[in-house]
Amino acid sequence: MKSSESAQSMPQTSFSFHGKASKYFIICLVNVLLVFITLGIYLPWAMVKCRRYIYSNMELNGARFSYRATGGAFFKSWLLIMILYIVVTVACGIISPSLTGLSAIIFIALMPLMVVKSLRYQADVSSLNNVRFGFSCSLGKAYWTMLILPLLLVLGSAIILTLMIYLMGDDSELTGLIVRLAVMILLSLVIVGLVIGVLYWQIMNLTGNSARFGIHRFNINVPLKCCIKTGILSMLILVPFVIVIAKLLSPLAIDVSMESMSGRLDEQVKEALFIKYSLQIFVSYLLYIAALVLMGSFAVASIRNLFFNGLYLEKALTFRSTVTFTGLLMQVLVMVLAIGCTCWLAYPWAKIRLVRYLASNTHVIGYLDNVEFRDTDEPNDSGFLAAVSRGIMPVVPLI
């Protein structure tokens, strides 16, 4: 109770964003032209220019952020990854044609290490008031969070679903089949939500507890049950949409089954069925997009709030996010409509609007003037693997 009252008595400083849609539009327009002229080669430089504008216009307590990444670092990383992948694939193919898929396995196995190095690079080139951020974590934790745990969760989910299918048995009655299918869909959504919740909890702990600002370390405390609840609720948002889409497309599925069993399902019949049910297919596609927008808005708002509300800087500063599901949903809907109605011309305006909304709903609680803003002497990550990894994770997750 005392800690809660103490937190409420602390001053709250909100982030503020000063970017202008007109200036960002010019940056995006020039980027698009140069990417087109250079056949995509300019893309990493375009990404850096956009992000640098966002950072330089983000302010906290009178201090601006800065972003010192270079397009050349990203381009070099992507080029090296492509060359290494081709070399490894060719080498495996020369040894044995059955080993051509080994290159993908090797890169997947190296991915956690490369992501950690990329996140370190992103932190090193980001600063506030000339004080750099930092990122460091053990490889064991990285491999557990990004590779081992996801594989175990997927394997466990597959085993559970397989057992459920076996225990439910066979039912030749149409009603029984529908009930089984509905139960399996609902159970699958719950399991997927649970897996997503656990993975996000691990990612938030990895990101929050491994970050640093100057000489100060970040820490995070997020309840696992809140992440699981968010994941399951996100998936359950899809249920009414799945029901409506199933009802719309069930006549098409029945007709396809009947034509297939009679042996008349050729290309002409397929085209005729597509024309007959084109309206249902179109409406189902719109419902699918709407479901993803609703689910994504709820998940992002909830996870972002969990992340920032559990984050603190060595107990000197705490953070707070006041993003709401409806508020973020309106931002996303405006962005989708603006982009769709203007053929992407209104994207810069919608992007600046979204960033300003997120900034105004992100707060730092505590006495900022009492925190020592001092950079560390830790050198930037270097070496061949660091150069290869810099383009793997160009966006810091959750932030």
What does this structure look like?
- The mean pLDDT is 91.
- This protein has an 11-stranded antiparallel beta sheet with strand order 1-11-10-9-8-7-6-5-4-3-2.
- Helix content is 68%, strand content 10%.
- A hairpin with a 2-residue loop joins strand 3 and strand 4.
- The chain has helices spanning 2-9, 21-37, 43-56, 71-95, 102-124, 139-168, 174-210, 224-236, 239-262, 267-276, 278-309, 325-342, 347-360, 384-389, and strands at 12-14, 16-17, 58-60, 63-67, 126-128, 131-135, 211-213, 216-220, 311-313, 317-321, 362-365.
Present the secondary structure layout.
Elements: H1 2-9, E1 12-14, E2 16-17, H2 21-37, H3 43-56, E3 58-60, E4 63-67, H4 71-95, H5 102-124, E5 126-128, E6 131-135, H6 139-168, H7 174-210, E7 211-213, E8 216-220, H8 224-236, H9 239-262, H10 267-276, H11 278-309, E9 311-313, E10 317-321, H12 325-342, H13 347-360, E11 362-365, H14 384-389
Antiparallel strand pairs: 1-11, 2-3, 3-4, 4-5, 5-6, 6-7, 7-8, 8-9, 9-10, 10-11
Helix pairs in contact: 2-3, 2-13, 3-4, 4-5, 5-6, 6-7, 7-8, 8-11, 9-11, 11-12, 12-13
